[in-house]
């Protein structure tokens, strides 16, 4: 997702970053490119207009203020506006003072409601909660069975009654109280498109359980249609947030960038694959960073923390930020990374990773030559790859059963990645602290 938009914006950012001065003509040209990129990503036209107006305002300000680095200021404006369009703030969950906290899941059939009900339950579990799932989707054959299977995988009980969806929801709530479960997630029925009967049913279920949160599951692949669906649901139910599913697909991203403006509610969670752990809280600022090719170190660090030893994760993160991350650290992390879900998704969060690598279908096997190359290096070479001269290269290639070109490529890519991380670290550290210049 966002690949095309990201590619175009990265190109624009690269161009303006290097400019010492920006003229109004430069700004006009940049704005034209940004507008086209957003429209091509299927972003709602109203959103495109307001985003562009605000970026332009900042950009013109930067050209006039004799700012030291106007390009950087424009990049910041683009980043801020993408963040705003993606919802601004991260939606944080407030738990009901009288448990259970009730979550209602709504959406069209096939949007990923059932899968994401289970993913959300798993997320709550990771927060130390004890969820109960309720299968109130009696419309789609086998939806309850699917929920039971998923529930068993994550060790979360599932309640359902084949009689009636509204009754099921109501009894599910009673069941949660009886069992002392503190979060209730109600999966409801969807249809292929919105119809009156479905809306009435979900309205009745909502009335029966009085949810603290109503989440609308939207399939990112449906683009602008998704935004219309959201509007229709929002008219009947008070939507609190969106769960954007299938963000691993090649959707252009328009839905994600438009939904906040259209219904005034943010994306709360993002689903990035079919596996139950491919689900994360949605952080608009981090996503904006990813789109602009600046990586998303924070999410990466969080995912690492879930898989790594705490100390090790903190050390690795600190080293990355300071640009002291060596090839040996890289090898170490590679072993852990295998525990952290899809490699393609991880790559998309790292700054400075070349496009081809991000888009490649990366599996564990493709890491083997990289592992072998690093293992054939001495500790000195892993720490200071600059010492690797021609004869060392030949030795490493022979030792790892690869070609000299492979060794070259790894060293070069690692060098670029390190430079980029260093830059990010300096930017991240410098932003909030006045006087600390990069
Ligand atoms: P429901 O009809 O809304 O309950 O939809 P399901 O939960 O059954 O999901 C429909 C299909 O989408 C299933 O095959 C899921 O595995 C798949 N799916 C759900 N979320 C994701 C996602 O984030 N990425 C991908 N690739 N597939 C997903």
From TrEMBL:
PROSITE patterns hit by this protein: SRP54
EC number of the protein: 3.6.5.4
Binding site for GTP: 107-114, 187-191, 245-248
Subunit structure: Part of the signal recognition particle protein translocation system, which is composed of SRP and FtsY.
Catalytic activity: GTP + H2O = GDP + phosphate + H(+)
One Gene Ontology cellular component: signal recognition particle
Coiled coil: none
Chief place where the protein resides: cytoplasm
Superkingdom of the organism of origin: Bacteria
Primary enzyme class: hydrolase
Gene responsible for this protein: ffh
The keyword RNA-binding belongs to this UniProt entry's keyword annotation: yes
GO molecular function: 7S RNA binding; GTP binding; GTPase activity
Span of domain SRP54-type proteins GTP-binding: 266-279
Keywords: Cytoplasm, GTP-binding, Hydrolase, Nucleotide-binding, Ribonucleoprotein, RNA-binding, Signal recognition particle
Subcellular location: Cytoplasm
GO biological process: SRP-dependent cotranslational protein targeting to membrane
Function: Involved in targeting and insertion of nascent membrane proteins into the cytoplasmic membrane. Binds to the hydrophobic signal sequence of the ribosome-nascent chain (RNC) as it emerges from the ribosomes. The SRP-RNC complex is then targeted to the cytoplasmic membrane where it interacts with the SRP receptor FtsY.
HAMAP family named among the record's database cross-references: SRP54
Keyword Nucleotide-binding listed: yes
Family: Belongs to the GTP-binding SRP family. SRP54 subfamily.
Name of the protein in its database record: Signal recognition particle protein
Domain commentary: Composed of three domains: the N-terminal N domain, which is responsible for interactions with the ribosome, the central G domain, which binds GTP, and the C-terminal M domain, which binds the RNA and the signal sequence of the RNC.
């Amino acid at each position: 997702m966002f690949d095309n938009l990201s590619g175009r914006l990265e190109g624009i950012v690269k161009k303006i970053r290097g400019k010492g001065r920006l003229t109004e003509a430069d700004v006009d040209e940049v704005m034209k490119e940004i507008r086209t990129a957003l429209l091509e990503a299927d972003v709602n036209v109203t959103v495109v207009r307001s985003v562009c107006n605000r970026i332009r305002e900042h950009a013109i300000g930067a050209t006039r203020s004799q700012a030291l680095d106007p390009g950087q200021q424009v990049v910041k404006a683009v980043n801020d506006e993408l963040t705003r369009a993606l919802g601004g703030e991260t939606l944080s969950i407030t738990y009901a003072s009288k448990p259970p906290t009730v979550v209602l899941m709504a959406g069209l059939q096939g949007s990923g409601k059932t899968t994401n009900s289970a993913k959300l339950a798993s997320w709550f579990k990771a927060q130390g909660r004890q969820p109960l799932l309720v299968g109130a989707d009696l419309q789609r054959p086998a939806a309850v069975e699917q929920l039971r299977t998923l529930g068993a995988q994550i060790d979360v009980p599932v309640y359902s009654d084949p009689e009636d969806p509204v009754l099921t929801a109501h009894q599910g709530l009673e069941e949660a109280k009886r069992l002392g479960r503190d979060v209730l997630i109600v999966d409801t029925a969807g249809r292929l498109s919105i119809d009156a009967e479905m809306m009435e049913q979900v309205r009745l279920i909502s009335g029966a359980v009085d949810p603290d949160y109503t989440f609308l599951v939207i399939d990112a692949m449906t683009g602008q249609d998704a935004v219309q669906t959201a509007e229709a649901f929002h008219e009947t139910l008070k939507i609190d947030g969106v769960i954007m599913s299938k963000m691993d697909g090649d959707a252009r991203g328009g839905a994600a960038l438009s939904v906040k403006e259209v219904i005034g509610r943010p994306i709360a969670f993002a689903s990035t694959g079919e596996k139950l752990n491919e689900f994360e809280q949605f952080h608009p600022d981090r996503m904006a960073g990813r789109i602009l090719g600046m990586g998303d170190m924070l999410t990466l660090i969080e995912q690492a923390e879930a898989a790594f030893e705490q100390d090790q994760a903190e050390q690795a993160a600190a080293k990355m930020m300071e640009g002291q991350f060596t090839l040996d650290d890289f090898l170490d992390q590679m072993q852990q990374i295998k525990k952290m879900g899809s490699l393609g998704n991880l790559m998309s969060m790292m700054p400075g990773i070349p496009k081809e690598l991000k888009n490649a279908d990366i599996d564990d096997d493709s890491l083997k030559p990289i592992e072998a190359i690093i293992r054939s290096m001495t500790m000195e070479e892993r720490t200071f790859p600059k010492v690797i001269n021609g004869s060392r290269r030949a030795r490493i290639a022979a030792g790892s059963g690869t070609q000299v070109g492979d060794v070259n490529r790894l060293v070069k890519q690692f060098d670029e990645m390190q430079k980029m991380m260093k830059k990010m670290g300096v930017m991240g550290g410098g932003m909030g602290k006045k006087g600390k210049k990069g």
